[in-house]
Structure formats: structure tokens, C-alpha cells
Amino acid sequence: MTDQLTEDLKDRLSLIESMIAEGRRTTESWGWTFVLWGVAYYIAIAWSTFGHGTMAWPVTMIAASVLTFGLASRKASRHPETTLGRSMMAIWLGMGISVFIVMLSLGLSGRADLHIAVAIIGAMLGSANATSSIILKWKMQFACALVWWTATAASCFISEIQAGIVFLVAIFFCQIVFGIYCMIAEARKNKSRGARQGASHA
Amino acid sequence: MPDLPELNPVIHGKLRLALLSLLSSVEEAEFTWLRTKTGSTDGNLGAQLLKLEEAGYVGVEKKFVQRKPQTLYRMTESGREALTEYVQALKQLLGAAIDA
């Protein structure tokens, strides 16, 4: 068997691997949702702190949900449905609904407290990030889960102001920075795909 | 020396191999998505998908979504089996090459 033929066989194996990975890897294209929700949290915090708005959280969260759903629907129409994609959607949708119900109920009942809010949101986001990272084998996302869990634990022992600061820092790293990182990774991947164009001939 | 397996000629074409590999990782995919992922032209992609469809490796469904035509491709069970056999044959051939 010639070296050329061996190389051809290896090329085909790597082509199979890269195409399967191409179909499965869709998570990076969701970086914008992390940024969007990070900004939404900041708006809600600023509004409720300085604007004295009792409806700050529900209004901001509903607006962010509608925006996410609208943009995601447009994106989803251009992507195929995968079991992995549906699993990811289930995790984040379940987490989002849970946080929304708890926070809305706490807000309406007048029992909302910053310690509890940071603990609940941190635990939920930590859980969702950890589950996603384990499924996707993505260490960077697991680091986000660790940050959220740390914020959750810390919020139970520190003052309200400190809990607020911890929450702002966790949002910055796990939503804004991580989201931008995902978007850059997606842009790089698209660029390299454009340059590759390897499988265009039969 | 054991007999070396033959590679399935329907799958062996690079674009057809790429298409089957892509379809193996998703439930179903649109023509436009497959075109983007493979960087192929409409004509070439359509011809190769037709060959896979004729071999029974790919199923096709045409429908309208918001009045726009949409063509969805899905890998069949025999397509999945054929790809698995192809990969095994490929590995066997490579193993033989290394041993030689």
C-alpha cells in the first residue's frame, strides 16, 4: 500500500471526525445569550437599586426572555435539530423558568432578599453551567459553574452589600466575559471554515 | 494475510462522505445548512445527495415553511450501518498499512 493511499485514508477518517464535530458543535453560537442575559441582569439591578422600580426584575426578565426567544427562533431556523441541542435548550429553559418563578414569587410576596436572590440565581446558574459543561466536555464553562457556586456559598455568609458586589462580579465573568469568549470562538471557527472549504468536491 | 475489505464506492466520494458524516450527527438538516457546512455548490450538492438517496442512505422531505420551500435530509438506518461499516473498513485498511 502506498504512502499516498495511506494519507488518503487518514484524510477520510479526519474528514468524518471533523464533519461529525461540525454537526454537534453548536454551543459557541449561543454566546450572545450569555451577554444578553448579563446585560439584562445589570439593567435589572441598576433599575431596582436606583430607579426604585418594584417591577424592575419582572419587566427586565420578560423583555430578555422575549428577545432571546425571538432571536433564537431566527437562528434555529438556520440550524438542524440535534439531540444535543435539544438537551441544551431543555437545561437552560428549565433553569430560566425555575429562576423566573422563584424570583417573581419572592418579589410579589415581599420576601425578596439580596442574599436569597444571589444564592438562588447562583445555584441555578451553577447547576445549568455545570450540566452543560459536562455534556459538552467544556472546561471553560465548568469554571463558570464554579464561580456561580462560590457566589452562592459566599452570599450566605457576607453582608448584603458584599453579596451584591459578588453577584455583579460573577455576572461580569460568567455572562459578559464568557459570552464574548464564545462569540470570538464562533467567529474564529467561521473564519477557518471559510478558508478550509475542504469537502467541496466529490 | 487476511483479505482486506473493500470501501463502499457510494460513500467513498469525499462530498458524499462529508454529507453522511454530517447527517449522522443531526436528526435532520436543511439543504442550505449542508451547503454551508460543506462549502459545496448547489448543483454538486444536489447530485451527491441524490446518489445517497438512490442508495437508500438518505431520506428526503420537502415542505413549505412560511410559504418558503424547505428540503430536509435525514440519514436512514441503512445509511448509518453503511457509514459504520465504511469506518471499520477504513480503520482495518489503515491498520494493515501500518503493519506492512
Mean pLDDT across every amino acid position of chain B: 89
The number of helices of chain A is 7
- Residue runs with pLDDT of under 50 for 5 or more positions of chain B: none
Estimate the global geometry of chain A from the Cα principal axes: elongated
How many E strands of chain A?
0
- Radius of gyration of chain A, in angstroms, nearest whole number: 21 Å
Most extensive interface: A-B, 32 and 37 residues
* Cα radius of gyration of chain B in angstroms: 16 Å
Helix content of chain A: over 70%
SSE order of chain A, as H and E? HHHHHHH
CATH superfamily of chain B: Winged helix-like DNA-binding domain superfamily/Winged helix DNA-binding domain
Q: Distance N terminus to C terminus of chain A?
A: 23 Å
User: What is the second-level CATH architecture of chain B?
Assistant: Orthogonal Bundle
Number of domains of chain B: 1
Provide the β-strand percentage band of chain A.
Answer: under 5%
Descriptive report:
The complex is a heterodimer of chains A (202) and B (100). Chain A has helices at residues 3-24, 31-50, 56-76, 83-109, 114-136, 139-155, 160-196. With 202 residues, chain A is mainly alpha-helical. Chain A has one domain (33-192). The longest helix of chain A is centred in the C-terminal third of the chain and has 37 residues, at 160-196. Chain B has a 3-stranded antiparallel beta sheet with strand order 1-3-2. Chain B has a single domain, classed as Arc Repressor Mutant, subunit A, CATH 1.10.10.10. The mean pLDDT of chain B is 89. Helix content of chain B is 59%, strand content 18%. Chain B starts with 8 loop residues before the first helix and ends with a helix. Chain B has 100 residues and is of the alpha+beta class. The chains are: A mainly alpha (202), B alpha+beta (100).
